[in-house]
Structure formats: structure tokens, C-alpha cells
Amino acid sequence: VLTLSLLMYPVLRSLALQLHSAVTGSYISGTHSIAFINCLNEQIAKDIARAIMDKKLAAYVNILPKSSALYFWKGELEESTEILLLVKTRTSKIGELSDYVRSIHPFEIPEIISLPVDQGNPLYLKWIEESVPRD
């Protein structure tokens, strides 16, 4: 019984949070995320952003202008300019988003990292939810 209770805890907690959110209208922290994806140039950034949107993996993608980057690659210090995508989506879509971007990105190891959204404008967060289909 104890083992079953421990295994069921995450599911029961998630259901309780969803029920609480539905009843109170409050936001569940971490339901949405912002993913950061680096790109070599603006054209690649636009192509990847459009592909993400066409697959409905995000509600919104910002394409930030060139920034300087320093990093180690194969033991050497490298310096380059990159374009950064900020992708607003459901947290539940991050795995699918990451897999898809890796399949189309020209980098051997593209930067794809995400941070959960703790709080925000409730209307904007609802819009993200409505714009990105559930799993």
C-alpha cells in the first residue's frame, strides 16, 4: 500500500492542482515554459521559428537580434554571433519541441533549454494554452 501510494502521489497531486485551478481560476506555476534556441543567422532563425509555429508547438516566438557568444567547442574557445529564439509554449510540449528542433537544426548540438513560467498575465497565459493544443 505504501509503495502504491508513493507511485500514485505525482498523479494525484497533478489532478488536485488541476482541480484547484479549475475551481479557483488560479494559475498552476510551471504549466507554461519559455524555451531558448540559438541559431547561426536570421534566416535559419526565421525558418526554425516558422516550422515550430506550423507544427503548433508554440503560441509565440520572438527572434532576438544578433548577440555575441563565447563558448567552448571541442576543447577550443570559440566566439561567434547568434540569433536567439524565445519560444512560449506549454511545458508539456518541451520534449516534442526539443526533438523536432534537433531534427531540423543545422548545429550538431543546438542550444535548446527551457525555464518554467512561475507567474504572468493570466489572459496571456490562457491565450498560450488556447493556442497550443494539448498532447
UniProtKB/TrEMBL annotation:
Alphabetical GO biological process terms: response to metal ion
Annotated Pfam families: CutA1 (PF03091)
GO molecular function, one term: copper ion binding
Entry keywords, A to Z: Signal
Coiled-coil residues: none
Residues spanning the signal sequence: 1-16
Keyword presence, Glycoprotein: no
InterPro entries (alphabetical): Ion_tolerance_CutA, N-reg_PII-like_a/b, N-reg_PII/ATP_PRibTrfase_C
Subunit structure: Homotrimer.
Record-stated family: Belongs to the CutA family.
Protein name (database record): CUTA protein
Origin species: Aramus guarauna
Name of the gene this protein is made from: Cuta
